[in-house]
Amino acid sequence: MKCFTSVYILLILIISCSSDQVNVTMIPNEGNVIVSTFDDGAMREISPIEMVSEMKMGWNLGNSLDVEGENETVWGNPVTTRQMIDKVAERGFNTIRVPVTWRFHQGPAPNYIIEKSWLDRVEEVVNYGRANNMYVIINVHHDDPWIIPTYPKGDEVKARLSKLWTQVANRFKNYSDYVIFETLNEPRYEDSPEEWTGGTAEGRDMVNQYHKTALDAIRATGGNNSLRKLMISTYAASTLPIAMNALVIPNNDQNTIVSLHSYFPFPFTLEGTDATWGTDEDKAQLTAEMDRIKSKFVDNGKAVVLGEWSSGNQNNFEDRLAHATFYANSAANRGISSVWWDNGNSGVSNDGLAIFDRRTLSWPFVEIADVIVAAYE
């Protein structure tokens, strides 16, 4: 009898969850790809629109695995634990977006090898979400310094991006369709005059090319990745018409979801120059923003996830609550999933975007969380 050790031996991985420990059985299978028993590896016959209707509302694990440094705590957030994600799931959120920065853990050309310990850590956090039966989105986040959308940089970026996604896709190859890949976050030419205004024709073209490079690399790994849902963003994930109109879905791939970010209106949500929201005019403008998105994509059969939205704490709780209520209901009523950007900071500042306290495992703005969940129920 032949010995298929790599297929049948069970490995026990101990995942630390704050003061708790959870025993997770990890089962090697074909190709020595490890799959958590939190995830059955099933791929359903489900369309992107049907999937988005199941994803509903989500929460971003912002400023943790996506920091610009080697340690996930460098921007002040504590180490992510299973208990944190349990609490988010218990509140009613059924999607978690896990932004990931790879450049501090990726080796040099030509192979651009990702550190095994970093892949292990990303998978550990993914399993926190899957243990709660949540949809989990992982992406390429603060890697913009090398993902430069210009023709001269194109070949270099494509080579590295292809290697990156090949490795990530192989690591999660046998996970179910509850794991979603977002090929790029807010792809743009940093510090250029057009960075937040839809980019240049060259920039928009290169962003489309980079999405195709990532998608082709993922699909080439085969298995579940042949059908896995992939989120594809506009230039800078912008909802400006010039950016939305320029988006090209790679290969007309039918298992794709459009990824957009809409901090609308910007003076209220992020800029911190307007602390009030809720007039009839405010509502009309936000309605028009949602209608533009629906008209461009949803009405044409394309599923949409608003991967980031939120509002800064300007000591204006009632206005934030009114905005969140209207925003979440507007998205839900149009069949659009929305994922709150939580950066861990709940203090009074335009950057105070957190509604969950990761240290105390409490909800300082529980009412905002609850109206988001209620909108999708």
TrEMBL record:
Entry's Gene Ontology molecular function annotations: hydrolase activity, acting on glycosyl bonds
PROSITE patterns: GLYCOSYL_HYDROL_F5 (PS00659), PROKAR_LIPOPROTEIN (PS51257)
Domain Glycoside hydrolase family: 71-346
Top-level taxon: Bacteria
Signal peptide residues on this chain, from the entry's feature table: 1-20
Enzyme nomenclature, EC number: 3.2.1.-
Record's keyword annotation contains RNA-binding: no
Statement: the UniProt record of this protein carries the keyword Hydrolase: yes
Protein family membership: Belongs to the glycosyl hydrolase 5 (cellulase A) family.
PANTHER family the record matches: ENDOGLUCANASE, PUTATIVE (AFU_ORTHOLOGUE AFUA_5G01830)-RELATED, GLUCAN ENDO-1,6-BETA-GLUCOSIDASE B
Protein name per Swiss-Prot or TrEMBL: Glycoside hydrolase family 5 protein
Organism of provenance: Sungkyunkwania multivorans
